[in-house]
Structure formats: C-alpha cells, structure tokens
Design goal:
This protein has 400 residues and is an all-alpha fold. Among the domains are: 43 residues, no CATH class; 45 residues, no CATH class; 41 residues, no CATH class. The protein is built from 20 helices and 2 strands. Strands 1-2 form a two-stranded antiparallel ribbon. Strand 1 and strand 2 form a beta hairpin. Helix 4 runs antiparallel to helix 5 and helix 6 packs antiparallel against helix 7.
Length: 400
C-alpha cells in the first residue's frame, strides 16, 4: 500500500519538473531569437516585398555581424547573380568553396552555384571546370545539363552528342530531337569543309544524317538536308525522294524547300509534274514561300500572264500582303504600259515596307525575328522554336 502511495506522490513532482524544464528551454529559444540581428528580418521582409536591392544591403549588414552564416551566403550570392552582379556572386560562392570547415554537401552546393555564376558571366571554361568537379553527387545531373548547354554554346557538337547520350543514361530523358539537330550540325560542317573532296564531304554529311534520322526518324531537318545534299550532287531523283518523305512526315515544312523542289523537277524536265504535285501536297492554303515559288515557276513554265491569273485566284481565296507583293513583281515583269508601270511601282513601294515587317520568321519562345528560318534560335538558343511560316501567316492563324 505504501508503494502505491509513493508513486501517487511522485507523479505531480515529475510533472512540475517537466514544466520547469520547458519554461527554461522556451526562455533560451526566445533569448536566441532576440540575438538575431534586426537586419536579418528586414532582409526577409524586403525579399517578400520583391525589393532585392534593399534585401542585399540588409543581408550584407548581417554578414558583418555573423560571417559564418552559410545559408545567408547562399541567399546573398543568388541575389547578386539575379541582379546581374556576377562578380560579387562569384566572390561570395568562392569564399564558401574555400572554407575548410564546410560539410561536403554544402561544398557541392557552393561549387554548383559558383559554376552558374561563371556561366552567367560568360566565363565558360571556368564554368565547365566547376561542373566537371560535380560529376558525382547530388548535383551530377544538373551539372551535366549545364555542360551540355556550354558545349552547344561553343558549337562543340561531338562533345555535345557525348554529353546528351550520358544524360540519357543518367536521368532517362530521351534526347532524340536534340541528337538529330547535333548530327545535322555536323553534317552542315562536313558540307562546308575544305579538307576533303566534294564527294567525301557529301559522304560524311550523309553519314551524320543517317545518325540524325536514327535519333529522331520523324524530325523534318534530316530529310530536308538529305534533299539539299542530293540536289548539290545533281542527284535530283534522290532529292525529290527525300523531300517526298518530308512531305509525308511534316508537310508544313515543305514551304522551306518549295523553290528547290521545283528546281529539281525543272532540271529533270518535269516542271509541270513538280507544280502539280507540290500544289497537291500543300493543299488549298500553301505557305507564302511556296506561293512565291509556285508563281515564279508558273511564270517560267506558262508565262507571266498565266502566272498572274493563277496568283490572283489564290489571293482572292486567301488574301496575303506578301502574296500581293509577288503579284506586283509579276506584273512589273509583264511589261505593262507606262501608266500601269507607274501605278505598279507606287503600289510596290507602299507595300514593300509593310511586307518586310510581316515576312519574318519569329521565335515562339523569345520572340526573336529573323529574315530566314532557324532551327536554333539566335536569341535564346532553343531548338525548334521557329514555325515554318512567316509572321503574316502566324498572325492570320491566331486571328482565325
């Protein structure tokens, strides 16, 4: 009986001791929080209010008080990089990498941030060195992606191919489209080289195009280039065959090779066949580049009068300022009367400036406009962001 009473008396005692201990711990926590510099909380407030410049000033003040705060170094370095002060971001992250007391995980993090600083600053060789040092660990895949980005920036296509294949093994992504472009770039290099004979360059280019097709069988670029290589070798039949495959897989891209399609048929003495087949493949509303090529080929085959009549019919169904510009060119070439020639010249001058603005290709990601079609945007370096149609046609599609 006495044993049970003893425990009944001990329970309130233990409860009281626990309550006292919790109060001591709470006071210690409050004391530690009160020791945090006010500048730290001001910096957080500035960040929440999207005022990074003031946040940087506040965090710099905190670092003067407590220079060992690792997470604050990371936050400050990222803010410097976002604001474009890459030199200051580099110094912050370099100071972290140089610390002997830094744990391995935080050292990897600092090295990764440093590589991004170098990349943002355009110091590609130093960025590459930083990312190479991260080949294993938590940042290995991210570092590999940045190395692939650098290889493309410096146009080192063989290294880019190797890195893309390694990336596929690392994270399971399918780089087929990218590999197709990289092999096409090597094919382009082979064609423009001067160290071998013309036949050797074409053979090297076709080998790369075979690899591009294996990487992405339905991508339009390898088939388009196959036709161009064949046409350069005066193998018009092979060129037509390659572009016929392109027409089955990606008919929208036929406008990019419409002129050369007709040129191949014309060399074979089959221009009429080329005109008929191209119109059939493009349908009722051909791209403006194909419309121009068809009008010019019809003028050579049937004469200016017939070509003008055909183009007028097309424009009546599908009005186009760029098509109207071509119509005026045909009318000028048709030897009009003096009065008509003056009117045509005036109309052409008025239309030309607007037509030039609407006759550009535009990147769907960054909006970079160019006179010719690019597979890789010169502005944002992304692949396949250019539609095969010009601005006027894209605007018409959007309006519809």
């Amino acid at each position: 009986m006495e044993f049970e009473l003893w425990w009944l008396l001990a329970i309130p005692l233990f409860f009281s001791l626990g309550w006292v201990a919790s109060r001591i711990d709470t006071r210690q926590t409050v004391r530690q929080s009160s020791q945090m510099p006010d500048a730290y909380f001001r910096g957080l407030n500035f960040l929440l209010n999207e005022q990074p410049d003031k946040a940087i000033d506040a965090f710099v003040e905190v670092m003067k008080v407590d220079p060992e705060t690792v997470e604050l170094h990371f936050a400050l370095g990222n803010l410097f990089r976002r604001r474009g002060e890459t030199d200051r971001a580099i110094r912050v992250h370099q100071s972290l990498v140089a610390r002997d007391d830094l744990p391995a995980a935080q050292r990897e993090h600092a090295l990764y941030e440093l590589g991004q600083d170098f990349l943002r600053a355009g110091l590609l060789d130093r960025a590459e060195d930083a990312f190479v040092r991260l080949e294993s660990g938590a940042y290995a895949t991210a570092a590999l992606r940045h190395r692939l980005e650098i290889a493309q920036m410096v146009r080192d296509w063989p290294r880019a191919i190797d890195l893309a294949q390694r990336l596929r093994q690392t994270d399971g992504t399918d780089p087929g489209t990218l590999l197709a472009h990289l092999h096409c770039e090597l094919a382009q290099q082979a064609l423009s080289g001067t160290s071998a004979t013309s036949s050797d360059r074409q053979a090297d280019a076709l080998r790369e195009l075979d690899l591009a097709t294996q990487a992405s069988p339905d991508h339009p670029r390898p088939w388009l280039m196959r036709g161009e290589v064949a046409l350069a070798a005066d193998d018009c039949e092979a060129a037509i065959e390659a572009w016929s495959t392109l027409a089955r897989k990606r008919p929208a891209h036929l406008g990019l090779i419409a002129e050369r399609w007709l040129q191949a048929h014309e060399r074979l003495g089959r221009l009429s066949e080329g005109l008929t087949s191209l119109e059939a493949m493009l349908g009722e509303q051909p791209p403006v580049d194909a419309l121009r090529a068809l009008a010019q080929a019809r003028a050579r085959h049937d004469g200016n009068v017939a070509a003008i009549a055909w183009l007028r019919g097309m424009l009546a169904r599908h009005p186009s300022l760029l098509g109207l510009e071509q119509l005026l060119e045909l009318r000028k070439a048709a030897d009009p009367t003096a009065d008509d020639a003056a009117d045509i010249a005036l109309s052409a001058a008025l239309i030309q400036r607007q037509a030039a603005r609407l006759g550009r290709f535009v990147c769907g990601h960054c909006g970079f406009k160019a006179r010719r079609h690019y597979w890789q945007c010169p502005g944002c370096s992304r692949w396949d962001t250019y539609a095969p149609r010009r601005t006027e046609e894209l605007n018409a599609d959007t309006a519809a």
